[in-house]
Amino acid sequence: MATKAKIAILGASGYTGSELVRLLLRHPRVEIVLMTADRKAGQPMAEVFPQFAPFALPDLVSIDSIDWKTAAVDLVFCALPHGTTQTVIASIMKARADIKIVDLSADFRLTNPADYARWYGHEHHALDVQQEAVYGLPELHRAAIKTSRLVANPGCYPTCSILPLAPLLKKKAIETDNIVVDAKSGVSGAGRAAKEGSLYCEVTEGIHAYGVAGHRHSSELDQELSLIAGKPVIATFTPHLMPMSRGMLATTYVTAKRGRTAADLHGIIAQAYAREPFVHVLPLGQTPQTRHVRGSNLIIIGLVQDRVPNRVIVVSAIDNLVKGASGQAVENMNLVLGYPETLGLEQIALFP
Amino acid sequence: MATKAKIAILGASGYTGSELVRLLLRHPRVEIVLMTADRKAGQPMAEVFPQFAPFALPDLVSIDSIDWKTAAVDLVFCALPHGTTQTVIASIMKARADIKIVDLSADFRLTNPADYARWYGHEHHALDVQQEAVYGLPELHRAAIKTSRLVANPGCYPTCSILPLAPLLKKKAIETDNIVVDAKSGVSGAGRAAKEGSLYCEVTEGIHAYGVAGHRHSSELDQELSLIAGKPVIATFTPHLMPMSRGMLATTYVTAKRGRTAADLHGIIAQAYAREPFVHVLPLGQTPQTRHVRGSNLIIIGLVQDRVPNRVIVVSAIDNLVKGASGQAVENMNLVLGYPETLGLEQIALFP
Amino acid sequence: MATKAKIAILGASGYTGSELVRLLLRHPRVEIVLMTADRKAGQPMAEVFPQFAPFALPDLVSIDSIDWKTAAVDLVFCALPHGTTQTVIASIMKARADIKIVDLSADFRLTNPADYARWYGHEHHALDVQQEAVYGLPELHRAAIKTSRLVANPGCYPTCSILPLAPLLKKKAIETDNIVVDAKSGVSGAGRAAKEGSLYCEVTEGIHAYGVAGHRHSSELDQELSLIAGKPVIATFTPHLMPMSRGMLATTYVTAKRGRTAADLHGIIAQAYAREPFVHVLPLGQTPQTRHVRGSNLIIIGLVQDRVPNRVIVVSAIDNLVKGASGQAVENMNLVLGYPETLGLEQIALFP
Amino acid sequence: MATKAKIAILGASGYTGSELVRLLLRHPRVEIVLMTADRKAGQPMAEVFPQFAPFALPDLVSIDSIDWKTAAVDLVFCALPHGTTQTVIASIMKARADIKIVDLSADFRLTNPADYARWYGHEHHALDVQQEAVYGLPELHRAAIKTSRLVANPGCYPTCSILPLAPLLKKKAIETDNIVVDAKSGVSGAGRAAKEGSLYCEVTEGIHAYGVAGHRHSSELDQELSLIAGKPVIATFTPHLMPMSRGMLATTYVTAKRGRTAADLHGIIAQAYAREPFVHVLPLGQTPQTRHVRGSNLIIIGLVQDRVPNRVIVVSAIDNLVKGASGQAVENMNLVLGYPETLGLEQIALFP
């Protein structure tokens, strides 16, 4: 029997943390040996997330209690808040060269320090470490991820938006100055922090836009779309909060280059992802529902020709906690550890 | 004490029908004297909608049982399905010149018969009557509504989309060839018909686009926007179904004419609606939630300058059953009957 | 035109506070002159509850900023947290004999100081004031409320449970030692405080019991049921939290005294409430839905004969924020001020 | 590599059908070879349930098109409506002695033909076959299931209610004449049929009791509880419909025999299920949430001592589509086929 990699989860008391636990408990090649949650240190996981009561798991500890030099850990998932992450990861990497890290925060996603400072309001505290980070979108950066020590797991909005746009920009099939991404997110994206805006009564039975023209994930979108297009791209991006725990839908409006049809664009995307295990492209004219990826690591993409000539409507759906966070993190772990990319990620969507 | 107008509601067993009852029961100048529901004829309203059990209401009857020549009715609300409406209304208008009609179906909204035939799949059966119809958006057509015998109450999507766009097009402040309306609707818009797609399990905790590039309300949008702009306008329009009973949000992306700022556009809209009782314009940079109009006849509009130069994001919110249907119908009734426009429509949003 | 009473709302930034504002803004005989919210003092109400943006309202102030000796206020609604309420109300009553108070907290509901201390964990700090308080369930204590200076507005669970049980206990029609109340509540009952347990993701699509065998509202139930029965009654009471903003359903299991049928019990309840404006009793065999009272001040009660001989199932439904809190508070205000009891409370349920 | 059993699913277009597909697609020892859905015969499963689009599955066929004598099928899941099931299963069993059947309908659950006739309104049409059926609650009838040709998979309500009560009745620890089961169910229990009562707008944000004192599952409860108690038991049983797709909570009120404490009862249940893979008993005083079993085959049980002496409150939670239907069906399949009972049923609850 193959040995199991020893896994630590920093920040296990949040929703991305618990989603990592859900996935890793059934992953045949890993073992969760360490879980931290500073404010809940000392508690068993079953108190924090009772769905894990039937399972054997280590109790939560504080980060400070860990001696990284001696910890029997092969890979660390870091699900800590933005900002604090930098220092923690820098100290781990300094202590041990052999530990791999998949970071679910935004701290190492932006390659340009000025972008980080502008969008996150302070200088980056671990610029040297950031040089090593790879943006963990396997469909775009698989080779680099495999050999990386530090994977910056993408945000949910960028994952959902970049994947359908990337092949179109790569093939120069669309105009770069008229991209509109209208995105709708489930509430778990806001985390488990007790905030008024995440209360049931503030979210159920309604919808609203937020962070209009100013959401931090715009910076990731800009970076990756520009990288692919080979020139600066600024996409219009409007996130909306809606009453669902999980799920994300991006309705993206693009202008096909003159002479390009929706069928052309569909063909480009379908071909680009023909061998991708976690990308499913619907027949032209069909669009996905978020329900059909709930709990699964899939992204489903659909395209429709608009009534306005040259305009094409692209709809993409993910589970924000899986392909948009912890599932993709496990996918990156698989790549880093040399496992089959789909291992432990075969869950089928829970519908209804 | 003022006399009360005698009101008939055709199709009272659907959601727009019950919403009319809710509003009219508390309207000081009307009396519901007749309610029809063919499949539920003979039943008391309390069986069909138990929330009305405490109130005195006539039992439901079939339409065929009514002799319009002698019926003691001043105004008819028609909440019947598209298509059957035409014949019914034509026969009422033929039988009686003194009965006013507010029609909540789509049958008399399109002025061009070819448009009707194209979007609804058959020739219009009452073209002569249609000549009399006025498109019942009071903010645009108030004077004509007041003297009309037949008001074609607008669809929910057009109401929510046209109101923010109309002043901008009138003032030629935006480009007419790059309008994108991304709309999100509550489920009650699909009515009370027992359809798989409206089942709880098919709608809760998720979102999907539908009727992409082909929703019938596009025809109303085209008609009214073109009328205002003075030239053909085709807006990109994508409706989404989401888990809320009531409510509609339209996120509209427009390109300001060169030299125009978001502040200019905001000023145009704010000024246009400064005296409108049912339009509330938020300060520049703020956007509305559907929850804040739940159960009320208001539309709330907000504008934000995008990061993309010249692009402005406009968000508008209504309750699809009130300003998007029955509330606006009562507003039209008030105009037609010479009542104050806000009479019986002062409900404040139910939040939470 | 009649003069309007001047109303203050202490704690206007919570859900019961905003519900008071919704109701009072449309009440013809009152004027909101003062609203407090300590942490949000200085803010306009439109920032705290944007649904009120279209309405003229005083800005929020801190309680300490009010000089009660000179304040032009006729009646105070107190929607403050349990505990702090006592001191505030005692100081108002000391400063001014002419101000009436309707208190929505639990502070003055329990007549026995020992009960208060046991259930709330500390001695009561205003026992003299408590002597004046009347338990504000109009159907039971109307006469006393009318002449009271201080009305202790009942909790939502007691309101929903006591009203169906009171006539049965009064007529000695049921056993007093086998009453089971299984109650289901909407989330707004937990208030607007940012607590993990009230987050959307923790509440949607599920249900759980809480405070099993130990919920504080048990003390109100015990007190009122014992008072009516003329002997000590302890009801089994299990509250459940479920995914709805508003609404409360109590399914109550009672044992009819030997010889009594469900029809007898139904008759007793129907007769007891025949003239009550806010109690609607369904025909025997029918039971209510919470949706049918959403936003209204009604309680609907239904009874069914169980298969187990002598057992009768009683189901009652209220909107926890209206009849269960702010609506009943306005009802009490009407009684205290000598207004018709239903004034401003004629809202019809919002369904769907 | 072990051979895979060939599985047919009759009625694959409903929610229990799709849930079987979800589970079986990831079961290592089975292969879905046949799926029927009469009204959707000829369609690919991806049209009926788009979440299966990425998977290879046989197209849907009509039942009549199958020749059972020659069909290469080892086991049939029957997820057909009550009533029609009898004839279909009788014909399969007549055609082939070697095919095993797990029936998810109610047709073979009641051992007494008179009970069936009374609760289902017509004589049973396959009484001979019924003699062979075993009530498929593995925790109670495991041995008989293993050797059965026909397993009658229990209803969701009985599963959720019987499991906590069985050990208490077996040990004669509770009174048999004062059992009250207050149950709350998700909407998927009503199936995918397009019924007004299952529409989103009729279910969201509210709760109501239904089938009060007359739900068909009462007959299963009576049968099994009486069997265990060794004397006739009639439990009071009130089902409620609430806004969740999946999940079921039963709050059960029992009277401990004189001298028995809640701790005694807890000990009895905990000991009875100590080795059961799908039963998790919480520490005394804790109660479960439905969310913590969403998508999993677990039942979680908790007990609390009530304030009323001798009364104990028992709360149990299942996913109605898994342990309450398709998961338990797969569990029964594993028993019938001689596989490990937990094979393919290791899914961890999806929360949030």
Automatic annotation (TrEMBL), chains A, B, C, D:
SUPFAM superfamilies: Glyceraldehyde-3-phosphate dehydrogenase-like, C-terminal domain, NAD(P)-binding Rossmann-fold domains. SMART domains: Semialdhyde_dh. CDD domains: AGPR_1_C (cd23934), AGPR_1_N (cd17895). The active site is at residue 156. Its main location: cytoplasm. It catalyses: N-acetyl-L-glutamate 5-semialdehyde + phosphate + NADP(+) = N-acetyl-L-glutamyl 5-phosphate + NADPH + H(+). InterPro entries: AGPR (IPR050085), AGPR_AS (IPR023013), AGPR_dimerisation_dom (IPR058924), AGPR_type-1 (IPR000706), NAD(P)-bd_dom_sf (IPR036291), Semialdehyde_DH_NAD-bd (IPR000534). Its EC number is 1.2.1.38. GO terms for biological process: L-arginine biosynthetic process. One of its GO terms (cellular component) is cytoplasm. Residues 6-148 form the Semialdehyde dehydrogenase NAD-binding domain. Pathway: Amino-acid biosynthesis; L-arginine biosynthesis; N(2)-acetyl-L-ornithine from L-glutamate: step 3/4. Gene3D superfamilies: Dihydrodipicolinate Reductase, domain 2 (3.30.360.10), NAD(P)-binding Rossmann-like Domain (3.40.50.720). The keyword Ribonucleoprotein does not apply. The keyword NADP applies. It is found in: Cytoplasm. Keywords: Amino-acid biosynthesis, Arginine biosynthesis, Cytoplasm, NADP, Oxidoreductase. GO terms for molecular function: N-acetyl-gamma-glutamyl-phosphate reductase activity; NAD binding; NADP+ binding. Catalyzes the NADPH-dependent reduction of N-acetyl-5-glutamyl phosphate to yield N-acetyl-L-glutamate 5-semialdehyde. Belongs to the NAGSA dehydrogenase family. Type 1 subfamily. NCBIfam families: argC (TIGR01850). This is N-acetyl-gamma-glutamyl-phosphate reductase. It comes from Phreatobacter stygius.
